[in-house]
Structure formats: structure tokens, C-alpha cells
Input
Amino acid sequence: MSDSILSNTLSADTLEIHYWFGDESHSMNANVQNRCEYEVLAIIKEIATLLSVEITIETEPDGEGGLRKWLKVISKEENKKGTITTAIIVALISVILITPLSKISEKLIDKIFEDTEMNDLQKEKLRLEIEKLKKENASKVDTIDYNTLIKKRKSNFYEALDKYPKVDKVSFVVVDENKTRVTKEKAVPRDDFSKFILVTDDLDPLEKEDAVIEIIAPVLKKGNYKWIGYYKGEAVPFNMKSNEFKTLVQNGEIEFKNGSSINCHLEIRRKVNNEGLEINVGYDVLRVNYYFENDKPIETKEGKHHRQIKEAQKNQLKLFKEKTDEEN
Output
């Protein structure tokens, strides 16, 4: 396959963003435009990080017809591999920005080839390069479909436009160095902006069945006061939601000394901040499995009950497997 056949594909490193207005003007609130492009730049950088490629991004003069902006992705690798990778990055960002959150589970990297102006030979070459990238960065590339930072940044982009009524729709297209379209232009109308905006910033909590917390400051009286413990190298305030354990402490049946710790079922509440980063916002101890007295583990009633249930379930599963093996 000759390089000339792929020339358009390899130079398809520019994303065109077109903001459409209901009037004949070509101007846009600078704060809104800068916020939108800030979010797009963040998504492009995240994709580049996932693909392990260093890039720079250049902007080009505005075009006519509403407002058009061009973002050109340039690889710091001065070879064909770098050029192909930038083409993939731009293709990916164009797909991400037109894919509603409800469809985020679809394989975005496979949607690059939909509605493209590339011929079959170009598609096949690009497909092979994508497969190579996926093998080299398998664990990272697979996260693109549900990457929290990407989803939040996209949400920020459309939330900014949703609050700016002048924009009727926004469209995206990949172009080459001559501004020739390599993909078909895809538009998102204002009525669909809400499909791209996160309803909540809360994430599913993390469950730790056997978390160990060293108690720094227990709560010895009744009330909704936070305990303080040492967990994974840092002091954290947490809610003790085990009524059984709180009663033992309040009745003086458990004495805390320096270095006292508990093994517990810990729930860590999380959310995504405005930069798309996952942060922990709260810790809840739902069950205490056992505590320590002079380094000796003392199992609690609720801990014993939970352990017995798990053992029964494990034995039941083992019997079922043995029965199935006998039948086969």
C-alpha cells in the first residue's frame, strides 16, 4: 500500500468545531467559547495520555458561517507513527463529542469508521494502526469508553453551551491540512445538549469488606459525631454506622489504647470534581468485623454473623459445583 493513498488520512489531524447561531452574526461570548475549548483541550490531552503519545495543540484563525474554530493536534514524534496517532486522536475526539452519555458504553474507538469520507484502503490501514495501539496500550485504551475525566469534561462543554442560548447547535468534523473534510460533519442540536450533561457528580461508592482502620479519636458519647482514624497512610474522619459497636464503646466494654484498630466493612463515598478527577468525599463504617485487644483479634457478633453467612454461601456453591461435576 503506497503512502500516497494514505496522505489524506495521515494529515487528518485537525478538529473543526462549528458553533451555529440563529442570527447572522459571527461573534460569541469569549468566556463561553474559551470554556468550551478548555474542556475539549482537556479531553484531547487525556486521550493522548491514554495512548502514551506527547502532543501539542495549535489553534487556527476563525472561519465564517456562525463561528468555526480549528484545533490542530501535533505529535512530538517526528515520524509516521506519530502522525497516524494524531489522526486517531482527532478522530476519537470527534466521536466522543457527538456521543450522548447514555451510549457511552458503546465501543467509541470502533465508531471512528462510521460516516467517514475515507476509502476502504485508508480505513483498513487506520484500522490496523488502531489495533496496534490497542495492543500497546490495552488497559488504557479500553478505559476511553467510560473514562470519568472525559465524561465530566464533555458534560462541562455542553453545560456551558446549554446556558448560552445564542448557540442553536454545534458540529464537529475532522479535516486535513487543506481543510478538506475526512469525516462527515456531525451536529448536535440544542435540544440534545441535555443528553451530554451529567445528572449528578456522585460516583458509585467503593466497598472494602476487610478494611483496617487505626483509631485515633473514637466517639465515646451518643450523637452523630465523626470518628477519626488512620486509613492507608492518612487521617480521615468517618461515620461509625455500626450500632452494635457504638453501643459497646459507649458502655465502656471496649477500651481504646494507642494503636488500637478495627477490621471493618468500609464504604467510601466518591464524586467527580469539575476537573474530572475522582475524589473521596466521605467514609462510613457499616460493620465492624473484629477489633483488637493487646494485638488479639476479638470478633464482634455482627462480624461473626457475616462470616457465617459467607461460609454458608461458599459451601453451598461448592456442593452445587460438585453435584454439577457428578452429573457431567
